[in-house]
Protein: Putative competence-damage inducible protein
Organism: Acetobacterium bakii
Amino acid sequence: MKCEIISVGTELLVGDTLNTNAQYLSRELSLLGIRVLYHTTVGDNPKRLEDVMKIALGRSDLIITTGGLGPTQDDLTKEVIANLFGKKLVQDEKVKEDLLQYFVNREFVMTDNNLKQTFVPEDAVVLTNPKGTAPGVMIREQGKTVILLPGPPREMTGMFEGSVLKLLNKEKNQLVVSRYYNISDIGESAAEDRLLDLIDVQDNPTIATYAKMGEVLIRITANGKDEKEISTLLDEYETIMIQRFGENIFAFSKDSLAEAVGKLLIEKNVTIATAESCTGGLIASQLTEQPGISKVFGLGIVSYSNEAKQTVLNVSRETLETFGAVSEETAREMCDNLRNISNADVSVAVTGIAGPDGGSAEKPVGLVYIGLNVKGNTEITECHFKGDRKIVQQKTANKVFHLIRKSIVDKVE
Amino acid sequence: MKCEIISVGTELLVGDTLNTNAQYLSRELSLLGIRVLYHTTVGDNPKRLEDVMKIALGRSDLIITTGGLGPTQDDLTKEVIANLFGKKLVQDEKVKEDLLQYFVNREFVMTDNNLKQTFVPEDAVVLTNPKGTAPGVMIREQGKTVILLPGPPREMTGMFEGSVLKLLNKEKNQLVVSRYYNISDIGESAAEDRLLDLIDVQDNPTIATYAKMGEVLIRITANGKDEKEISTLLDEYETIMIQRFGENIFAFSKDSLAEAVGKLLIEKNVTIATAESCTGGLIASQLTEQPGISKVFGLGIVSYSNEAKQTVLNVSRETLETFGAVSEETAREMCDNLRNISNADVSVAVTGIAGPDGGSAEKPVGLVYIGLNVKGNTEITECHFKGDRKIVQQKTANKVFHLIRKSIVDKVE
């Protein structure tokens, strides 16, 4: 099956938006054994969209479009494709009901242009949008399959995972199941190196790696006629993953490091407190994205200024003056004193230079001290991170989560 | 001049590589006033590459390709295009010399396949590669301009900035300038509704809207022969934008709400402190993404538990017991006491229920109290947000930023 991905949106052609959708779909389709031979991007222009659709229908069997399904005037993908196949747009009652409910739930006033989204080409399969208002559409005509997905990546991936994957698998008469392994403290190239022998001969299962800052997600995907056949294949690979990555695996899921640590703290009932300088609340903020975290997290302090470090965290003026705010000694006092204030099982304190200003030859941008107190005993980790302000902040947070996780896992095992 | 970007490489079609080249070129070309109408991606396959080149020559005046210029067997772009124009590949002595020198300089041994890179189509303009070995090529034939650039982003951008920009500048006959207006507290459809009359007749300038959570970015783009002509057009639209969106415009740029507020605080030298319950540090964290914020931000407290509210923020036990942690009274005490601890010009406190648990009929998930103290005077805003935990947290943060901004702008104007 030859496939083409058509991305619709002038924002892509003027360079405002990076086309991550085409990459996501290419990878997903490749893992399903579908050959993607072309990507095409075209603006919100009906004539040019029609032209590229005609070219695509001439050379591809499966065409997946993204973008142009929303409520505004320049959202034209459905209209152009319905017209091309000589189909009318008809209002779908279920879609209309969902749309009205969407606005009721959010207490938004619905403007009339939103109703445009309730019209779909006649005889088309409607794909629900779990993350937004614009439904997707699948049309089969003249031996071709055309699937229309929304442009915003969250909505597009939500619809792909929720509906399209099933439809494509049905067509191939097979089941596909993926398992995920999320690892920290190993780079993507290094992780891939450890998998090279498997990647080189991959067929079923297939292996894909996705790198985020400080995390590498490994996905193992197997296909087969039934669940048992697939489980056998995946179990074999799970053993290999554990052998090769061991305690670097922080989640057997797509959970981020912050999520995994949040869940672990709740599960083990380990209380935690945070004192942040250069991360400015990022660690507390990412921890508290986790539902139920209030069971173990009570207090975070963002002691950005020296005054706040003295007033709220009781760091001595002498320490700040002798060693500076970014020093092992300040990190230690922040951590020890936080432990006394909070009485938490784990207290963590960070102080560092996120940049772009504030660095010196002796204490450059990226220097961060992390204090970790576990049941009264404080250990300091000195880190040197590269990157801009946001990257230094996120790398610091990830290192903290890695250290917290390690301390709990080591204690428990 | 209609332009098409053709990206060559199977790694793009299987999703291994994100196509950042197409975005970079689109942006650069748009700024030169060149309209990019299509992106096409094709694999390292001579027949399909030839087909997409033929389609491009039929609809575009300027075609820029990236990829397929290297030394390996599957690098075929030069060969396919020379063949299409009926041109021979001839060895370029200067390119050969540079290539040999490249390897001498790096003390690498040159393998023979590298010599493939010294052959270029006859009569073509050779573009030197400041960051690698494969030269680029420009061909003008039959009223069309075809520019072949290497695939690795460093090499591609180096060649674009070093050679292509100059060549295109000679040809350009107009300038293009965009202005941005970022607005809060209005949805995308509602914003577009207010612009519909302009969008319907748009030609020059053009209008585009981009929605993020709680923010809508409006871009106005004009073209003309010189800066003055463009400024006149854009000034006229700026007046309209201010009339229609007024104080909802929080940035005359692409800045996010948090960035705009961070910059405003620094610019006006207004000091700020935060006390967060349900947002868990998100407000402090987004503020401290802003470089230089330490000038105005000293202290943030994440008082997640009742104990922390009492110990660190001195909220009275009576208030917590009588009215509950999520109440106007608690928000007021958090805010007042934070003001006393921090002595900041603006103190902000939030307490609410982010969910999914913890809600009741009387105090449902999404109920948030925001306290804002400006120079001693505290005002409470009661909010009811819909959405999941993360959305409630982000909406709360955005509302806080909106209120902070309003208080500063109102005070100043």
